Amino acid sequence: MKVEPAARLDGHLAVPGDKSISHRALLIGAICEGETHISHWGRSGDTESTLSAVRALGVQVDEEDVETLVVHGTGLRGLRAPDAPLDCGNAGTLARLISGILAFQNGRFELRGDESLSRRPMGRIAEPLGLMGAAIETTDGGLPLVIEGQPLTGIDYTLPVASAQVKSAILLAGLGATGRTTVHEPEPTRDHTELMLAAAGAQVTRRPGSATVEPAASLRLPEVLVPATSPPPRRFSSPPPSFPARPSPSTTSASTRSAPGSWTCSSGWAPASASSTGARSPGRRSGTSRSAMPSSSRRRSAAPRSRASSTSCR
Question: CATH number of the domain that 57 lies in?
Fold first, then answer.
């Protein structure tokens, strides 16, 4: 093969939707009321495991195209125990986050994974969920894992090691618990779960080093536009450029209690009312609110693309 010098390169790249947010959009949409429209969903082996898992739990998910899904939520406690184990493949985000949701559902749930995932520690979620009252049993600290739905009680828990997955599992379990659930983390981690829950109507309070969720009666998340990438976790007092600065943590409790479908965040989301003109964004469905990325971050081509490669989420 011979490569000749070129004056320029001309073409385009289609960047897939963020995998961490794609997982969460499916899982949270599954326990919402009504439909959740997910655009620019990042299709990969891991997120397809999440898609298969929510379907196995009785959730209808329509695939409009390779990156557009419509999730027909079953409500906060409406997931159905399947006859067979849930196959998490190699998706650690799925295995850990869904454990928090299943902890307060009715029924018995078994989670399995491939050889690689089965070696990953699940005691990190089993311990705090057990403190909340969950009936959860691991296999030597890993998968297979069995959960029996139980009444839960909120806890105040400090993570021994910073982990967005463990934090998310506890907060998701807190939705179905009695009393407030607070998670303290030794350093900032991805806050997609807190922000998406707030957008769905949950009462979430975010402070430097901690996140709190109150029990929820119901959730509703009409639409999610998954960004192409998510920046690294930022400290709460340092919002990224081009986003409205939040009030200083020293002058507010930083409570995030947005109306469903209208929200901001320091991890790459923009408010639904980003435009002061009130004009509808291209492609918005009439009668629905939209949580969207800035237009400069939206994908400019609808051309089919190959699967995203699997990456890890802390």
Answer: 3.65.10.10
